Give the backbone structure.
Amino acid sequence: MRFAKPRLSQRWRQRTVAAFAVGVLLPLIAGLTGGAVASAQPGIERHNVYSAAMDRNIPVDIVRSSGGGNGALFLLDGLRAREDRSGWTIETNAVEMFRDSNINLVMPVGGRASFYADWYGPSSTNAQGYTYKWETFLAQELPNYLGTIGIRTTNNAVAGLSMAGSAALKLAADHGNRFTYAASFSGYLNLSAPGMPSLIRLALLDEGGYNVDDMWGPPWDPAWAAHDPSVFAPKLAGKTLFISAGSGIPGQHTQIREPIDYFHTANAMGLEVVSLLNTRAFQGRADALGLNATYSYPPVGVHAWGYWQDELANAKPGILRALGA
């Protein structure tokens, strides 16, 4: 006997229920002064850039363009951003991928559980000693510093994964011609969707005990809409966008070797399905507005670095065109 294939709307409802079930059970994981010092990795310069907004030095890893070009691609980490190195240098071949390209890679280090936003205040649930002001740093302080070392301060590109997908789009939307190209890999681009504020609250608590109320306030606070790409999409007119999300089906980068790998894979599958639903919703809004966006929906892919590396490679030609490299 052959079973009838569910209608498209039924399948999407089933995926939505499954995604949010997994999401609830498994929290979302997935300056003008400064100086450069040698990095342990060949070809990567470590710059300590002072942020007046956060009153601290922010490490930034920079890979210089091979031909002296002054355009820059900012690469932003996800929720579990480390304090010692950019995940892009640890988990992907991004440095090698762009080594012969005539652009500079700019990879800020840090931003754990921050959504790269300007928070209202320090997180009150984990004794954070200062207030995150990442948007100010990325849109003002860091570009000003880059201008002092021969990297242009406008017409650059920014790409972010997971947590940083929406942040990359907001930087492009809100800061004139600082960023004329933005890419989101497995981002959450419909933050006002039912259930999303609760999932983000769980994610921040899971990753270091951060309090979402100190970031954007309660779900009815205007800050949520201000950071929701599906809401601020009209401000992306004139920008070049690359937007991707996987299917949630494990592929070539998923390896099951230990029992814990089943847990991590299930988590990554659920997270990616939530991202896919968010991204499809954003596309509907963006298409209605006629935004200049390229979409990538690979048939396999979960919330993991190998798939983000693949999508960066897919985005690379458009990034080089946008930066004139």
In short: Residues 8-323 form a domain with the Rossmann fold fold (CATH 3.40.50.1820). Confidence is low (pLDDT under 50) at residues 1-33. The chain has one domain: 8-323.
